[in-house]
Amino acid sequence: MLSSAIMSSDLNSRVGQLQNNWLKNVKFEHLLAGTTGGVASTLVLHPLDLIKIRFQVNDGLSKRPTYFGILDAFRSIRKSGGIRALYQGVSPNAVGAGSAWGLYFFSYNFLKASMIDAQNVKNLSAPEHLLAGTIAGASTLCITNPIWVVKTRMCLQYAATSSQTEVYYNGVIDGLIKLYRNEGIKGFYKGFVPGLFGVSHGAIQFMAYEEFKKLNSRYFGQAIEAKQSALTYITMAALSKIVAVVVTYPYQVIRARLQDRTYSQHYEGITDLISKILKNEGARGFYKGLAPNLLRVTPACCITFVVYENIMHFLKPFMRVEA
User: Are the CB atoms for 37 and 304 separated by under 8 Å?
Assistant: First the structure.
């Protein structure tokens, strides 16, 4: 009886300790730093994202403008609508990127810290980082997918082809209202399934970033959380992003075409879309827009991570005082 009581007491103590650790691991500075980094990178590099999306949905069969490279796209879009046209869809992109990065950093670091506490270890393994990134990414996508649908459609609103019958979005809120009014809840989650596959992108990127941080720590004999130079953060962020992009890019093409209001009706689901891309465009069709995507996401990732890391180190003294 005494032994059973001791075991029960130890179990209750352990559960109580884990609950306290979970509360301790809820750190909103990750949300603030991630949101700031996401918004900053979006405002700088949105035109490349706009061009990437237009390349992705160009199947060679539509009447939409065709661009002969990135520079031609810049010139054509600027000529048709000025500098403002290059920032079409920037509002949902900034909201989406800010909320997505903020929520991702917040949930990822909460999961990582909780897994470390539960196992009583100093660092997680690469597969464990991958698991934490996957859960964080899936949770974030559930919240932000409607914003990405609106962003994609706003980036595909061509002034030259817009008509009175077309549902034109005048901003994030207007887009969300019209999307719900015309397509219901189902419209909010267009492209959600391939987006779930894309969760692997963030998970692979964060896993690679964590591994590069470990290598850097071992090589220079520093603590893994020690503040690094901007160049070090840029190098680690760029390498981790390139690895993730090369592995997962095809899902972005599939997702963009499913979210495209005008041409998604041409496909009877993901399987039909994949087979038609292979038939009409070959394997290269899955990598349309890769060049502007790499040009955008690599510096965007670098900006996001540099801003995030520096804000986190700036906030650390204040968080210690509060603790």
Answer: yes
- How confident is the model at residue 11, as a pLDDT? 54
106-132: per-residue pLDDT in tens? 999 999 999 998 888 888 999 999 999
CA–CA separation, 62 and 285 (whole Å): 15
Count Cβ atoms within 10 A of the Cβ of residue 282 and give its class: 0-12 exposed, 13-18 middle, 19 or more buried.
exposed
pLDDT tens per residue across span 131-163? 999 999 999 999 999 999 998 888 888 754 445
- Contacts of residue 43, defined as CB under 8 A and 6 or more positions apart, other chains included, come to 90, 94
Q: Which two tokens stand for residue 57?
A: 């949905």
Give the chain's domains with CATH numbers.
33-322 (1.50.40.10)
